[in-house]
């Protein structure tokens, strides 16, 4: 079944405007164009607006899980998967930029990657970036996922995995779904425990970054460990 003529005309106008300038499109229209490829016979404007209303912004839509996306009326498995593919592609591009040089010398690229990968996640996740002797990225792993305000962290597990990776240093990272990246007292305490666990193994903790929609906080820069 073909889409109604008024929908075809609307999508054609959106594509024409996008070809001239993506910046001219508000978020809901950009999301419409993305959804049009997954939902070719559906009126997608209300779906795009419902997604933005539900998750609070385009980044949060892409950061939502497939199951959360499918819970929005009109978003089926195909559309949800396509949106997550876009998010994954953006995250991999950021990770590639961060891995081109030593992590320490490409700090801005690392922070940009962390924001894409984690800032919009609806639940807290704890990641570890494992570095070699030259401070180049060996691997980036999500070690735990939790609730909206807590992800369990086990310092011994972090160091066990670092030894398996033959890592010389690590960078810890987790997100605050609330949006505020301010480190909590628990964040500081956990960081100090990981630092202590790595000391006897000669595995350094270069930093612990907290990512939120409002920015990124570095515990090292704040003098918290």
> What is the number of independent domains?
2
Would you identify the CATH H-level superfamily of the largest domain? Cytidine Deaminase, domain 2
Largest beta-sheet details: 5 strands, mixed
- Spans where pLDDT lies below 50 across 5 or more residues: none
Radius of gyration, rounded? 20 Å
- Mean pLDDT figure: 87
CATH architecture of the largest domain: 3-Layer(aba) Sandwich
Q: Would you list the SSEs in sequence order as H and E?
A: HHHHHHHEEHEHEE
The chain-level structural class is: alpha+beta
Q: Give the termini separation.
A: 62 Å
In CATH, the topology of the largest domain is named Cytidine Deaminase, domain 2
Spatial arrangement of strands, main beta sheet? 2-1-3-4-5
How would you summarize this macromolecular structure in one to three sentences?
The protein has about 220 residues and is α+β, with helices and mostly antiparallel strands. The protein has helices at about 5-20, 25-40, 45-55, 60-65, 65-70, 75-100, 105-120, 155-165, 185-200; strands at about 125-130, 135-145, 170-175, 205-210, 215-220.
Topology, please?
Layout: H1 5-20, H2 27-38, H3 45-55, H4 58-63, H5 66-70, H6 77-99, H7 107-118, E1 125-131, E2 137-145, H8 155-164, E3 169-175, H9 185-199, E4 204-212, E5 215-218
Parallel strand pairs: 3-4
Antiparallel strand pairs: 1-2, 1-3, 4-5
Helix pairs in contact: 1-2, 2-3, 2-6, 6-7, 8-9
